[in-house]
Structures are given as structure tokens and as C-alpha cells.
Amino acid sequence: MKKYISFLVFLSCLGLTTNLLLAQQTRLTGTVTDPENQQPLVGVSVAVKGKVIGTVTDAKGHFELATATPATLVISMVGYERQEVVVKENQPLAIALKSDVAELNQVIVSASRVEESSLRTPVTIEKMEARAIQQAPAATAFEALNSLKGVDMVTSGLTLRQINTRGFNNIGNSRFLQLTDGVDNQSAGLGFAAGSFFGVSDLDVESIELIPGAASALYGPTAFNGLLMTKTKSPFDFQGLTVQQKVGINHVNDPNGGGAKPFSETAIRYAKAFNNRLAFKLNASYIKGTDWYATDYSDIDPNTPVENRGNNNPGKNGLNIYGDEVASTLPGIGRVSRTGYLEKDVTTYDVYSLKANAALHYRISDKIEAIYQINVNQGTANYTSSSRNMLRDFRFTQQRLELKGANFFIRAYSVAENSQNAYNTRSLGQFINRTWVKDLSGNVVPIGKADATWFERYGAAYNGKVNGITSQNHTAARAFADEGRILPGTPAFDAAKDKYSHLYGLEGAGVLSLCKMYHVEGLYDFTPHFEWVSIQAGGNLRYYDMNTNGTLFDDKTNKVRVKEYGAFVQASKTLFEDKLKLTVSGRYDKNQSFAGNFTPRASAVFSPNTNHNFRVSYQTGFRNPTVVDQYIKLNVGPLILLGGAPSNSAGLNAYENSFTAASVGAFGAAFGQETAAGTPFAQAVAKHKDKLVKSAVPYIRPEQMQAFEIGYKGVINNRLLFDVSYYHGKYTNFLINQVVIRPNSAAVLAADGSINPAAAQEILSTTTRQTFQLYTNAADKVSTDGASGGVTVLLDKGYRLAANATWAQFNILDANPNNVPAFNTPKWKTNVTFSNARLTEKVGFSVSWHWQDAFLWYGTFTENRPGPVPAYNLIDAQVSYKLTKLKTMLKLGASNLGNNYVVQAFGSPAVGGLYYVSLTFDTH
Predict the structure, then answer these.
(1) What pLDDT digit, counting tens, does each position of 774-825 carry?
(2) Dihedral, CA atoms, 862, 867, 870, 875, nearest 10 degrees?
(3) What CATH number does the domain containing 66 carry?
(4) Quick check: is 61 in a domain?
(5) Does residue 20 register a pLDDT over 70?
(6) Residue where a domain stops, chosen among 37, 67, 99
């Protein structure tokens, strides 16, 4: 890799030397107008082809830049046809852009990592540019993605949304890659994708590209389900001051009460360029509001028959109630759970998101640009994983250093997370519950005896052993057991909440992570050196440095550090007078914990003419287990969570010398019945020991998938765009967890291969055995099928109609449902958008309708037991008005205009309408 980077640096220096010797600088000027009304166009991009320099037009449609001549200028703007103008001498230019066509044929980068027409991409792809984002009926740029076909969006909270494509969805979603200026937005230690929580201010977004489906052949392990690539605005091209103030309300007529709550967002961007060589930009945005409430208290206790669940169930386990997961089966009484606390009592619904960004750009020459950028993000959000987590004051810092040219880049970046105030709300409820329990003499017991003592009090009261308490009465027994319970809102409760949310590991509910990730990558486009073929190649190195002080990993003394690298090459060739484009690519990745992995991709695009394009592709994807999947070593009391990297379990004998949990259960039940009938201990063990089964859990390895896709994309009369596709995917090696039980000293098998009686005896006692939850893979194979179709119609007078629909189907084949991650995708979903950005000279509008089918959600929050996500439909809308003299845009908008409270994942909050007004001042 060092030799590779050195080669790229050498090429960069060579290009710089050549440029300095040969270039003759000329200052070019011109004006860009709309031919329909002869009005100047503001914000048109004017770039020099083959170089890194460019600019944008000002309020009068004027531009100027210095470059060597002859040169080719690339003129582009959303909603207008892209033009290339050859300039041979210094003469003022008058350029008229044809409207509308560019919206149907955009320039795409992410599909092949080089610029190409969106009509001829080898895979299906979506793109939104700054103007489309600004006009979208959405409160944020991330929310606007909900209108794209194939997108599944899940709202964990007001400041945290997450997207996915093509199924196997979860809220953290580490199977979907999100890049901002090439920087990975995934948490280094906790492993969740940042989604809308962190990133850049909407004011700095130039474009967003979305690839649904595997993109591992070009982007590596995380792009298993797809890729979201956000590009920010260059301070050379977008200069000046932009300020936005947004105010609004949510929780209108919330069925959970509390009344409407205020929402606000303040954002500012300033960029300045000096002599077309040096430029900088500053961005900041601050969102503040009241989070959506998670108030589904449905009884989901797995040990109670469905017909017996509900508020009268003494063993109730409420979905968004924490502490009642602790339960016991009491002799002669049945299953009883502790009294829990509602989520609103143990979390914080006052949330915020702060995003700050600064970047310095220096053009070493017309062909080479150097960039340093830092992003600092901090916020509070409620996040759903295996528990609901309060990400309180969670900080996320990214730094990027990049050297790029017209046909190469070298990029190095770091990602650091700081989680010291975050906590697990479920664990917090349990810890608070253990602080106030009294024994039968009225004395508060130590925290380690609290649960057992509470059940003892309950049993005594129910069985009539407590004076003054009605026997055989669950309500009375619970009231007696809860005597002295700390009530929410009291000083004692607040003190306990503060204490245990800042203690970590077995001592509290705090979530500590100071983990970092470092990444270096490069790409070179060799196409200019070959006339007959287009070739690109690139590679990367990645290094994880974990720091949880022993609360998540065994990293107090044994540092957890993970290295991986990858490289790819891609070649494409056009044939038959540019009507057929063939592309093949392959990528090799190696993580220190796994064997190397090769992911190929091949595609063909047939274009009988420029407006009609048929594509077929074969794609592969893989996903490395996260660092948590590999190296977690967390004692949670009843069991130890153990990551699947071989070195992580060294000396524990968990993978090598253990029994399956199911066989231990069968053996224990049979042994209990035998001894109850009077059989001596040793004989009962010998008689039933063969019911035990030695586990055969493999060490963890990457997930794998293959997909075939066909599609068509075409434009008719420059007014109508069709994009349809069908795919079939095959998946294997899905990451799962398996519970095993290990005898503490004896070997599982005797010398002759039979079950060792000594091991069977140890398994019978919790003091001579250890339970592990192991991270591993399932051998099961499953498949998926899906199709999507979209149509965009450009109507007269600026009206635009866009509609899309997506169908997805999961085929479990012969797989064990317990060995496959949840598909978590509705079978059908649709979007329809009607808009006109130029209804009048000053007024524009946009309305979107979203609908999706009902489906069952399986998540770790409910231990992968299903919960309903009802079908829903909602409308987003906005109206804008230009205050031309003030250089300001007024926007009145609503997300979920009808205020339908919808749930997008079982256990997540119900999300209602958000109504807002924004003012955006822009000097561009």
C-alpha cells in the first residue's frame, strides 16, 4: 500500500511540474441565461474539464475564472441541460442553458466511481441535487430521501433517522454504507450508522447519490445493502453567506398528551475564495426540540401465552417499560415480573443536534487540490437497538486530509466517538429497581440481593404470610413487594437515575466508548493513458483503535485493535459505435480476523440510442462483522457476550468445550423428573447424559450475497423518464447469536467420544458452569426478489410529476427462521410527488404522498420476536416564496401534514406531524 501511495504522489508531482511549465493562464468571463425568459441564472456550475478549478454564476448570471487556453468549460445546473463549451481565446461568453433535460439525465459518480450519465449507469441509482433538496417537501435533506424508490426509512427519534434498501433492515444498520465527502459515517466502536444524527448542515449539501443493493465490489465491506454518498459544496464554487432559521412545532394533538412542543433549527454557512487558489468554508447548524414518545406498553412476555398477556398478567413485560424484564416463576404462584418504569421516566425527550464543519481548500495547480476538513458533531437522541439507549451528549468527530486531481485522489481520515454520558434505559430501570427493596423486617437490602428479596416479599404476601395483606391477590402482593419504591419525579429517583446512568459495566447503565477509526485510501483513473479501454484502480487501509475501559471489550490491559485493507480494479469498454458498454470490476479485502474475500461485479448496458438504455448486472457483496461482533467480551450477569474472533475467546473454551443450550434444558428437565421419582443422583445423570449435545459453533466470518439485476432507463421526448428494475439476491453466512453452556473444569466429551458424566454433573449447577452468547454465522441460505419502477413527467409551465413503487419478497427456503436476520421490509411501498418550483416568478410548491404496506418487525429490542408495523400513508408539503430584494426564501412546510401518528419499527416511537416555517438568506 505504501508503494501504491508513493506512486500516486509521484504522478501528482509530475502533473504539477508539467502544468507549471506549460500552462498559460487566461481570465475567462461570461454570462449564463435561461433562453425562455432571458433571465440570468444564479448558481450555475462552471468547471474546466479535466481540471479541479471552477466557479458558479453570481446574482447577475456572471462568472469569471482563470485557466489555461484552449479549455473546455462544463456548464451545468439542476433542471437544465449540461453543456460543454470549447474556449480558444479570451472573449466574453454568452451561454443559454436549455431547461428540463438535465433533470432527466444527470451526471453520476458513485455507480462506477467515475463521472457517467445517469441513463447509462450499470446499476440502478438515485440522485438529489441541492436545488431538488431545497424544493423537497421535507424538513431536512435526509428526510427528503424518503421519496426515492426503494428506500426504507426508520425513525428512532426526532434527531435520528436511518435508511436502508433491499431488506434485512435494522435500526443501527451496519449493512448500509453512508459516506460524506468519502468519509464513513459509521460509529467506530458502537457500530451504528449515524443516519441523520450526524453529518453536515443541509446548507452545505451539493448532492446525494443512492445505490440500492450491494456495492461491495467498489466500496468494500459495509456496502452490503447499498450506499449513500453525500457531496458537500466546494468553497470555490459556492461562495458567500447563507443563513437559515427554521421554527415549528410537533406533538400536535399527541394522543400521549403534553401539548404541542416547539422545534427550531439555526444554520449558517460562509465560504470565501482568494485568487482561485485558496478557499475556506465554515458551517454550523443547531437543531433543538422534543423527541417523539415511545409509549407502546404492550405485554410481550415470551413465557406467557398470548391469550393471557395484558395488564392483568402478573408476569407482564411491557414493551417500553424497563425493569419488568426481571421475572421469576414462584412455586404455587406462577410467573411474576418486577414492577418497571415507563420510558418517559428514565430517558430524556429534550434532544438536540449540533453540527459544525470547517474546511480549507488549496489548489496547488489547476489539476491538483489539497483539502483539510474537520467535522464536529454532538447531540442527544433516543436510539433503539437491543435496548432503548439514551445517546446523551454523544460526540462524533471526523477529520479529512485529501489530495485530488481530475483523475485521482489520495484521502486520509479519522473518525472518533466520545460516549461518556450515554446510557441504556432498560438497564437503568433495572438498577433503580434494586436500590429500594426491603426485606420482610423492613430493612433495605444490598443491591445484589434486591431482586430475590422482592420476589420473596411477593410470595409471602400472596401466600397469606403477611398480616393485613389479602392472600391469593396479585395486586395486593405487588403493592406489598413495592413498598418503598422510588417514584419518578422525586429527588431520590433523580439521584438514582443520575448515579447509575454514569456508572459502567456491571455497576451501572452507562455506555462508555472513546473508540477511533483511521482510514487511508486512494484511486487513480488510468483512462487518459489508454485509448481503447477505461480503467480505474484503488485501495484502502483501515485501523480500529477501541477504548471502552473494559465496559464493552476486554481492553483495560489488552488493547483491541483491528486492521483491514482492500483494493479494487475496474475496466470498461464500449463497443458497436458506443451502443454497448461492458464493465467488470473486482475487489479483494482482508481483515486480520478472516480469510481474504474477493467480490466481483460485471455489467452490460445496451443503448440503441442515447435515450434508451437496457442494463444487466451481476453483483456480489460481503459484510465484515463489526468490531463489536468480533471482540465484545461483556459479562451481563446471567451470561457473557463473547465476540466471534478466535483470539477473543482464547482460554475460555466456549467455542471448543460447551453444550447447546437446548440440550442442557432437555437434560435438566429429564434429570429433575428422574430424581423426583427417587433415582439416585449419579444414576440419573448416567441415564440422561446423552441428551446433552456438544455445540459446534464456528468462529465468525463475513456475510455473503450474490445478486442479479436487469433494468431499463429511458427518456421520451425529453419530457418523460422511465426507470424500472428487477433483482434476485442470494444470501448466506448471516451473523447470528447462539447460546452455549460450558462446564467449568470437565471436558465435554470422554476419551471414547461419549458425553463425559463429570461434565454433565457440572452443568446441573449454576456455580460450576458458565453461559455464553456467542457471535457466529448460520449456514442457512435464503433469497430475495424485488422490483421497482419510477416515472418522472415534466409537464408544461414547470409542473413536475414523479411516482415510484417498490415490491420486495423474502424467500426463506429451507432455512431455520432463528438463523436469519429479519427482513423488516414492507412488501409494497409507493411515493408520488407533484411540484412546480416556478409556479410564478416568486412562488413554488411541492407535495409528496407516501404509502407502505403492513408487515411484521423483528428486532433485538424484542429478542427477535415479531411485532406489527401497521400500514400507513402520509403527506408532506411545502410552499415557498422568494423575497428577491432581500435574497431570502420563505418556506412554509409540513412533514406528515395529516398528523397521522405512525410507527416505523416495533418498539420505536409514534411519529406525528412536524410543522415549520423557514427563512433562508443566501448571497450566492
Answers:
(1) 999 988 999 999 999 999 999 999 999 999 999 999 999 998 887 888 899 9
(2) 10
(3) 2.60.40.1120
(4) yes
(5) no
(6) 99
Cell of 588: 479483494
Please tell me what DSSP assigns to residue 212: E
* Cα separation values, 505 from 173, 501, 509, 554, Å: 24, 11, 7, 11
Phi/psi-derived region of residue 787, left when phi > 0, alpha when psi is between -120 and 50, beta in every other case: beta
Bridge partners of 520?
412, 541
Please name the residue that has the C-alpha cell 489539497. 370
Domain count, the chain: 2
Residue 634 lies in a domain: yes
Give the whole-angstrom CA distance, residue 897 versus residue 902: 12
Burial of 350: CB neighbours in 10 Å, binned 0-12, 13-18, 19+:
exposed
CA–CA dist 825, 210 (Å, integer): 18
Quick one: which of 505, 509, 535 has its CA closest to 523?
A: 535
CA–CA dist 21, 602 (Å, integer): 41
In a domain, 423, yes or no: no
Q: Which amino acid is at 595?
A: A
pTM tops 0.85, yes or no: yes
What's the domain range around 643? Answer: 629-699+736-777
- Give the dihedral sign, CA 858/861/867/873: negative
What is the three-class DSSP state of 647?
Answer: helix
For 137-170, what is each residue's pLDDT tens digit?
999 999 999 999 999 999 989 999 999 999 998 8
In tens, the pLDDT along 120-145 reads 999 999 999 988 899 999 999 999 99
99, 126, 148 - which closes a domain: 99
Question: Which runs of consecutive H residues, i.e. helices, occur in 381-502?
Answer: 425-433, 450-462, 474-481, 491-501
pLDDT tens per residue, range 763-776: 998 889 999 999 99
| Of 100-104, 427-431, 603-607, 807-811, minimum mean pLDDT range | 100-104
- Whether residue 85 is contained in a domain is answered as yes
* Average confidence (pLDDT) over 837-859: 95
